Amino acid sequence: MFVGSDTVNEFKSEDGAIHVIERRCKLDVDAPRLLKKIAGVDYVYFVQKNSLNSRERTLHIEAHNETFSNRVIINEHCCYTVHPENEDWTCFEQSASLDIKSFFGFESTVEKIAMKQYTSNIKKGKEIIEYYLRQLEEEGITFVPRWTPPSITPCSETPLSSCKKQAASMAVVIPDAALKEGLSGDALSSPSAPEPVVGTPDDKLDADYIKRYLGDLTPLQESCLIRLRQWLQETHKGKIPKDEHILRFLRARDFNIDKAREIMCQSLTWRKQHQVDYILETWTPPQVLQDYYAGGWHHHDKDGRPLYVLRLGQMDTKGLVRALGEEALLRYVLSINEEGLRRCEENTKVFGRPISSWTCLVDLEGLNMRHLWRPGVKALLRIIEVVEANYPETLGRLLILRAPRVFPVLWTLVSPFIDDNTRRKFLIYAGNDYQGPGGLLDYIDKEIIPDFLSGECMCEVPEGGLVPKSLYRTAEELENEDLKLWTETIYQSASVFKGAPHEILIQIVDASSVITWDFDVCKGDIVFNIYHSKRSPQPAKKDSLGAHSITSPGGNNVQLIDKVWQLGRDYSMVESPLICKEGESVQGSHVTRWPGFYILQWKFHSMPACAASSLPRVDDVLASLQVSSHKCKVMYYTEVIGSEDFRGSMTSLESSHSGFSQLSAATTSSSQSHSSSMISRWRFC
Question: In terms of residue numbers, what domain contains 261?
Answer without folding.
Answer: 207-274
